[in-house]
Write a structure and sequence with these properties.
alpha/beta, 11 helices
Length: 310
């Protein structure tokens, strides 16, 4: 039986009572890394809080805490998330002795210092078409299969292929299709069965995540997959069909920076090595004016030693 046949699930395979029973004394933290997402983060927090944090009858809550890590927002993300019921931390203010770096991965790494969950569920803050079953769906394999360390979500993404007009419901985003999939095919073919390797909705055992080196930018998802496969085995990874999801889109130049971070993380985990803190990426503005941006490609070390009491 293939890895995909053994380890691909659908979100409705588990009922809430079954997950609550499997959870036992474990704690679950929902972590939402956010930067300038005042329009959507409140609904993400409020809907999960109402469905999964509020006591489910006499059986308790599936999610014990919702923690938003605000990554240098310049809008009202912090206040909106707090008003919706989340515990909100500014990434730069968590363990200031460790310094502060920009990026999604930094926010997720810093979450280890302010959460209490034995299991962490990550969700993006810019969701537009989603439902609260994402959370129990991601928890299913972790709460019922002790060998699983990390669970990736995948979903149908509404839209058509721009070139052919054909429906491509399970295609990833532009960076997934043009960068991550070719990179995996070339350097990490055992991971080719992941439907959406860069999906922002995933879950992981706390101890395992704390043992990983974490890229501070957008390469956190790919790096976690590669490192989980290498430190455990492929069956430590599962994936769950979550149904349908859509989100806001970034500009092409920002996607270029994202792709640079992902390529760097993949390169560093191949037979090659990489030691620079930034990569100069040349892009072109209107009028063919060159613009060089320094793309940060640093990584945080495993957090486990830093989580130990002094």
């Amino acid at each position: 039986m293939s890895w995909s046949a053994r380890n691909t699930h659908r979100w409705d395979e588990w009922t809430l009572p079954a997950l609550l029973a499997a959870k036992g004394e474990q704690r679950v933290s929902l972590v939402v890394p956010a930067r300038n997402e005042e329009k959507t983060v409140g609904e993400v927090v409020a809907r999960v809080r109402d469905a999964l944090v509020a006591p489910l009858g006499d059986t308790g809550a599936l999610v014990d805490e919702i923690v938003v890590i605000d990554s240098d927002s310049t809008d009202h993300t912090f206040a909106v998330a707090a008003d919706a019921g989340a515990v909100v931390h500014r990434a730069a203010e968590i363990r200031p002795d460790l310094g502060a770096r920009p990026g999604k991965g930094e926010a997720m790494w810093k979450s280890l210092f302010v959460t209490t969950g034995d299991v962490l569920v990550f969700m993006d803050a810019d969701l537009l078409d989603w439902d609260t079953h994402f959370v129990p769906g991601l928890l299913g394999p972790l709460l019922t299969r002790p060998e699983v360390q990390l669970v990736k979500g995948f979903y149908a993404r509404p839209g058509l292929d721009e070139a052919t007009g054909a429906s491509t419901p399970y295609a990833g985003g532009r960076v997934t299709e043009l960068v991550a999939r070719p990179l995996i095919a070339l350097l990490f073919p055992p991971l080719a069965g992941l439907v959406q390797p860069l999906a922002g909705e995933w879950a992981v055992r706390r101890d395992h995540f704390a043992s990983l080196s974490v890229p501070t930018g957008y390469a956190v998802e790919l790096a976690a997959l590669i490192d989980t496969w290498r430190t455990h085995d492929l069956d430590a990874i599962a994936q769950v069909d979550l149904g349908t999801r859509s989100h806001s889109h970034q500009g092409l130049h920002d996607l270029g920076a994202m792709a640079t971070q992902i390529l760097t993380a993949g390169w560093a985990r191949s037979s090659h090595s990489h030691h620079a803190a930034t990569i100069p990426l040349t892009q072109f503005l209107p009028g063919a004016v060159p613009a060089v941006r320094e793309v940060p490609v640093t990584e945080r070390p495993p957090a486990a030693p830093l989580l130990e009491a002094p």
